[in-house]
Amino acid sequence: MAFPHRPDAPELPDFSMLKRLARDQLIYLLEQLPGKKDLFIEADLMSPLDRIANVSILKQHEVDKLYKVENKPALSSSEQLCFLVRPRIKNMRYIASLVNADKLAGRARKYKVIFSPQKFYACEMVLEEEGIYGDVSCDEWAFSLLPLDVDLLSMELPEFFRDYFLEGDQRWINTVAQALHLLSTLYGPFPNCYGIGRCAKMSHELWRKLEEEEDGEAKGRRPEIGHIFLLDRDMDFVTALCSQVVYEGLVDDTFRIKCGSVDFGPEVTSSDRSLKLLLNAEDKVFNEIRNEHFSNVFGFLSQKARNLQAQYDRRRGMDIKQMKNFVSQELKGLKQEHRLLSLHIGACESIMKKKTKQDFQELIKTEHALLEGFNIRESTSYIEEHIDRQVSPIESLRLMCLLSITENGLIPKDYRSLKTQYLQSYGPEHLLTFSNLRRAGLLTEQAPGDTLTAVESKVSKLVTDKAAGKITDAFSSLAKRSNFRAISKKLNLIPRVDGEYDLKVPRDMAYVFSGAYVPLSCRVIEQVLERRSWQGLDEVVRLLNCSELAFAGLTKEDKASSESLRLILVVFLGGCTFSEISALRFLGREKVMCLQRSPYCVSRKP
Amino acid sequence: MSRTKGDEEEYWNSSKFKAFTFDDEDDELSQLKESKRAVNSLRDFVDDDDDDDLERVSWSGEPVGSISWSIKETAGNSGSNLEGREQLKSRNSFSSYTQLPKPASTYSLSSFFRGRTRLGSFQSLSDALSDTPAKSYAPELGRPKGEYKDYSNDWSISDTVRRLRKGKVCSLERFRSLQDKLQLLEEAVSVHDGNVITAVLIFLKRTLSKEILFRELELRQVALRHLIHFLKEIGDQKLLVDLFRFLDRTEELALSHYREHLNIQDPEKRKEFLKTCIGLPFSAEDSAHVQDHYTLLERQIIIEANDRHLELAGQTEIFRKHPRKASILNMPLVTTLFYSCFYHYTEAEGTFSSPVNLKKTFKIPDKQYVLTALAARAKLRAWHDVDALFTTKNWLGYTKKRAPIGFHRVVEILHKNSAPVQILQEYVNLVEDVDTKLNLATKFKCHDVVIDTCRDLKDRQQLLAYRSKVDKGSAEEEKIDAFLSSSQIRWKN
Hints:
The complex is a heterodimer.
Chain A: H1 16-31, E1 37-42, H2 43-52, H3 55-60, E2 63-69, E3 80-85, H4 89-104, E4 110-115, H5 121-129, E5 136-140, E6 146-149, E7 152-154, H6 159-166, H7 173-187, E8 192-196, H8 198-213, E9 227-232, H9 237-241, H10 247-255, E10 257-258, E11 261-264, H11 266-269, E12 275-278, H12 284-289, H13 294-313, H14 320-357, H15 360-372, H16 376-388, H17 393-406, H18 412-426, H19 431-439, H20 451-462, H21 469-479, H22 484-490, H23 520-531, H24 538-543, E13 550-554, H25 562-565, E14 568-573, H26 578-587, E15 592-596
Parallel strand pairs in A: 1-2, 1-3, 3-4, 4-5, 7-15, 8-9, 9-14, 14-15
Antiparallel strand pairs in A: 6-7, 8-13, 10-11, 11-12
Helix pairs in contact in A: 4-5, 7-8, 13-14, 15-16, 16-17, 16-18, 20-21
Chain B: H1 5-13, H2 25-41, H3 43-46, H4 53-60, H5 67-78, H6 82-92, H7 125-130, H8 157-165, H9 178-190, H10 194-207, H11 210-218, H12 221-234, H13 237-247, H14 250-259, H15 267-277, H16 284-313, H17 317-321, H18 333-343, H19 355-361, H20 366-379, H21 383-390, E1 391-393, E2 399-401, H22 407-416, H23 421-428, H24 434-443, H25 447-457, H26 460-467, H27 475-484
Antiparallel strand pairs in B: 1-2
Protein name (chain A): Vacuolar protein sorting-associated protein 33B
Main location (chain A): cytoplasm
Pfam family, one (chain B): Vps16_C
C-alpha cells in the first residue's frame, strides 16, 4: 500500500460507542410504547438501522412486524403502530392518511412517531392541520452520526445539500451543532478549531452556544481529537465534479456506495445473484486497494492471487498433522480472502468494461484540460457531442458545471446553445434543473463584459447593510464568482511535473486525480493545519468569497498531549467524495477522519 | 489563458498521462484476466463447503434476520390472498426466525466494526456513562419531548427561542404586537436554527396579513428563503405565487407554475396545462423552450395515436418486424427524432411524423440530425440510407462523402450497430487523421485498411508486427507478404 501504517500513528477514538448509544436510545424509545407493536421504517433509515441493530433486538422489545413506509395502505393488524421516519412532510401526510382512515373505520389504535435525527415544527404543523395532533405521540431519536468505518462518520442526510445550498434552509445546522456537541462530550473538547464557509460559521456558533449552555460537563477531560475543521461544500465544487480514479471512488461512481456498502450485480459476482458487500477496513483486500490509483490495483490483485495460489499449494506434501493444522487454522482465512479477491477482481473487470465503452480516457482528458484552463473550445465541443449522443445525462451536466466553475461561468452564447441541446437530448423539463443549478451557483452565465464587475465592487461596498437585502440578492450570483483559476495558481493545485508522475509512489495529493490536480478542499485543509491558522491565506480566502467566513481559534487552553493533537476531524458540510477521503488519508501523517454527509453532490434534479 | 499549439502538443505527448489509459484494453485486462483465472482455478478446492456460517453473515451483506431482509419478507407477503394469511402470519412473526439454522443474533451486526472496543461491544448506556464524567449523552432521554408542556407566558424573546431550539413546546401567542413578532423572528435568525425560524414563520403566517408578512420578509432575506422553502414543501402553491408576485420575481413565478406539469400524468391534460404556461413571464430563452415543449407533446400525441393504430392493424411491415418497445409520449426531442428516423424515415416533409419536418420545426442542428439519423438507420442495418446520408454532389455532378460529425464518430456508431467489415472499412478509409485511422482500423479489424496504410506510411516494422495478428494462410497474410517482398516500396525502416 502506498501509505505504510506508521508505527507511531495515534490511535483512533472508539466510534462504536456512537452505535451503542444510538441503539440504547432506540430501545428506550420503543419501551415508551409498551406491548406488541408493528414498526414502520422509512426506506432511507433502513440501512443505517441495520448497522446498529438487528431484528432480534427489535423483537426483544416487542416489535412484531416490520413495514416500509411507502405510499400504500397499511395491512397491519396490530393495536399499536410505531413509525420511524426522517422529519419530512410527505411522511406526515402518509401517517395522517393512515390515522384518519382508522378513525373513519371507528378503529382505535395507539400511534407513535419517532423522528430521526430530530423533529421539525413544520412536521408537527402538518399533524395539527390533519387533525391528528394528540392522537399520535412524537419522539426524537438523536441518531445523527453513523460510524461507517474506523475513520469515517456520516450523518446520512442526502437532503442536506439541497436544503442548504439550493434552498437556503438552515434546518440542519442545529443537527450539526448537536452532533458536534455529542462528539465533544464523548471524546473530549477539541483544542483547535478551524472553518470556512457560511454554514461552517453558523454551525460553529450554534455549537459553541450549546457548549456554553451545558458548560462544565466536558471540562477537564483529556481531548482525544486535537483539531476540528469545518468546511462548506460550496468552497470547492470542482473536486466533487471530477471523475474519480482511486479504487473506492471508482466503485462509488460505478456501483454507488450507500451507507458503507455496495451492491455488486451478477456481472461482478459471476453468479446469478447480486451481493451486498460492506466496504470498510475489515475487508482486508479492499483496505489495501481502496486509496490506490486504479492503475495500481491490477498489479496488486494479481500479486495477491499469486500469493494465495502459493499458500494453497503448500498443502501438497503436507502430512496429516500439518494438514489438520492447515484446515483448522488457515483455511478459513484463505477462503475469505479468496472470495474477496474474486469479487474485487470482478468489480475491476466491470469498471474497466464500462469505462472503455464510454471513452473514459477522452472524458478525463477533457476534465484535465478544463482544470488547467486550455483548449476551452475543444472541451466545449466535446461536451456538446456528449450531449448530442445522449450519453449519460448526469455526466453531461457534470462536465457543464465543471466548465462553468473553472471559467467563472459560461459565455452566454455557449450557455444558450448547450442548454438548448441538453433540453433536446434529455427532455424539456430540465429547464427546472438549469434554474436550480444556476441558483446553486453550479452552472452560470458569464456577466457580459467588465462593466458589471466594476459595478459589483462598487455595490458590494454599499450593501453591507442587512436592509439592502434585495440588492444583495440580485448580485449574489456575481458574488459567487468562483475565481478557480486564480485560486488554483495561488495554491498550486496543478502540479508541474517533469517527466512521468509516478502513481505507484505518489508524491502529493494530486495522485487521486492521476497527478493532474490537487483537490482544492484538501489543499486548504493542509495549508491551514500547517500554519495552525489562516495567516497568509488572506488572498485565497478573499477569492473563495469568504472574507468574513473563515475562522480559527484555540477554543480551550492547549492542555492536549501531543499524541491527541495529531488527530483531526474534518467535517464536510454538504458531502464529500471518496477521492477527498483518500487524499486526506494520504495527507494524514496524522490520521484524519472525515465526517461525511451525502456521499456525492453532483447533480440536482428539479 | 491560452497556450501555444506547441505547448499543447508537448503536453499531450508528454508521458505524464500515458502511464495508464482506460483504452489499453489489451494490456491491463489481460493482467486482470490472468488474476481471475488464477483465482478461479482455486475455486474447486474452495467450493466444497461453501456455506460457512461466519462468512454467510459478512458476505450476503443482508444476513438472515437483518432488518432490510425482514422488511422485504413482510412486503413480499402482504399482497397475497386471505387463505395464505394464517400461514404467512406464522412465517412473519419473529418466533419463526429462531427456527432458522443460525439465529442472526449470534453474529451481531456490530461485530463488523470490531474496532478497538475499550468498553466491550455489548455494554449498556449506563456502563458507558459511568466511564466518563459527562452526563448529557442523550439529552432529555428521561422524558420524551412531546410531553413537555409549558404554558408559562413569561418567557422573554431569547428564552422563547432557546426553548424552541431545544424542541420544547412553547406558546407564541403572547407575541401580538408587530414589533414583538419581528424581534422574535430576528432572534430566531440570529441563532441560525432553520427549524426555529420556520416555527416562527408559521406563527407569523397565521397571525399577520400576507401584505404585512411579505413586506417585512422582503427586508429579511434569510427568513424569506425559509418561508419560500416551507411553502414549496407543504405545497401551498397559491401563497407562493402571491409571494413571488409581490416580490416581483416573475421568472420564479413562471417556473414554479411550469413545475406543476410534472404532476399531471394524462398527456392531453398535460398538453393543455403546458399551453397555459406559454404566456408566462419566462426569460426570452425559456419562453422558446416552453413553447417547444408544448409543440413537441402535441406532435407526440398525434404520432402516438397514429402509430398505435398502425401497429394494431398489423399491416405495416416496419411495426411488425420491430414492434415498439414504449410509447413516444413525453420523450425528449432527440429520442422522438430517432423514433421518427426509425419508423417514418421516408415520409414526405408534410407529415408530422417525418424526420425532416421535426428537423425544421425544432431547428435541429445538422450535426444532431445526422448523428441521430445515422444511429437509427444503422440499427435497421439500412446501409444504403447511411451511405446517402453522407453523400453530396458537387456542381459537376461528382459525388463526395462528407460528415458534419467526423468520420471517426461515424465508424464508432456503425461498429456499435455491428456493421459488416466492408461497410466499416469504407468509412474508416474516410478518416482524415492517419493515426486515428490506423487505430480505428486496428481496433475494428479492418485488415485491408491497416495494411494499405502501413504501406502508404512505408512503415515496414509496423506491417511486420501486424502480420502476427492476421490469420495464418489468410488472404491478408498473403497481401502483407506480397508487400513485404515487393521491391517497389522504399521502406522507411
